[in-house]
Amino acid sequence: MRTVLFIEKKFKDVANILLPAWVVFNIDLFLSFLSILIAYTLRYNFIFPDEVSNNFSVAILRYLLIRGVVFLIFGIAQTHIRYTNSRELIRLLFAVLTGTILLSMVSFIRHMLGLSVYLSFSVLIIDFFVVIYLLAGFRILARYIVYRIKTGNKNIDFNVVIFGHDHFAVSIKTAIETDIENPKK
Predict the structure, then answer these.
(1) Of 43, 50, 51, 162, which one's alpha carbon is 20 to 30 angstroms from that of 77?
(2) Which residues, including other chains, have CB under 8 Å from residue 8's CB and lie 6 or more apart?
């Protein structure tokens, strides 16, 4: 029993320590790397053509460089993950959108100059949605984990507002109050 309490106390101590910005930045870059790999594999149906595989490592490095610079400019790694809210997620969306537009412009300029396009637009579109999903999901999951560690397994009471028309709202309220499985009578 003491070891369980000790482990629980250590988890709460870890939850009180904030992740440094460089750790969050590296996690964001890793998730971006994972996103571009997913986008490539989905776009080319898990089979890489020769023209894509020749420039793949250079394309990934350029991609991570542009994503990293945009993340630094927007400062998405500077905020504490456990305080993530909708405003931070919108800023994350704008950062990813700006990075995708920059990558599209670089690919378009390379195409107009007759150079090889290192990221196709279809890969960038897939990557946009995947990177938004991964980065926002990471932040929401981290916030949830910190919340669960701090509160433990306690059930938190929530105030509920029931909207309805006269007897419908009253019948729902009565059903909730008389529910046998509801421990909060």
Answers:
(1) 43
(2) 152
